[in-house]
Inverse folding.
């Protein structure tokens, strides 16, 4: 389920990391608005629907049904982005990606999944707000920093 949030955040993080002069950051921001906003608008209801499903789950079978909601959405999203099933590394003629491992339901697993979904919803909502409100790359950088989404410097 984390792949959805990661796919949505990568371009914005690239904008924040783009060194000045090498990339037209204003053009990149406009492209992100055109491509990412619709996906974010589609993903938030799916994330919320999955969260409510997980919250109501009480066994492994129900939890697996909840995971299927996000898996189906991920497939649709990747198809929209023109990515092959299984991700960019998947070559033509190769077998289907392996199934996700079965997760045994427990209160702790439920809590962890809910925390992950809450974080994805929070990040996606913040990113959507930043894209909608920013007119310049500098505004986008400031919004991302204020929202806690700015890329962290690499530690060596």
């Amino acid at each position: 389920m984390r792949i959805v949030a990661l796919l949505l955040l990568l371009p914005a993080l690239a904008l924040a990391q783009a060194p000045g002069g090498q990339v037209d950051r204003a053009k990149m921001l406009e492209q992100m608005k055109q491509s990412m906003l619709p996906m974010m608008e589609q993903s938030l209801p799916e994330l919320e629907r999955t969260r409510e499903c997980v919250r109501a789950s009480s066994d492994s079978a129900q939890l697996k049904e909840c995971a299927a909601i996000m898996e189906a959405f991920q497939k649709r999203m990747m198809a929209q982005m023109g990515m092959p099933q299984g991700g960019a590394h998947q070559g033509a003629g190769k077998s289907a990606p392996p199934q996700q491992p079965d997760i045994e339901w427990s209160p702790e697993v439920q809590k962890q999944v809910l925390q992950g979904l809450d974080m994805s919803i929070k990040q996606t909502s913040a990113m959507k707000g930043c894209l909608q409100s920013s007119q310049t790359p500098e505004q986008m950088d400031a919004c991302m920093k204020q929202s806690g989404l700015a890329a962290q410097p690499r530690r060596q």
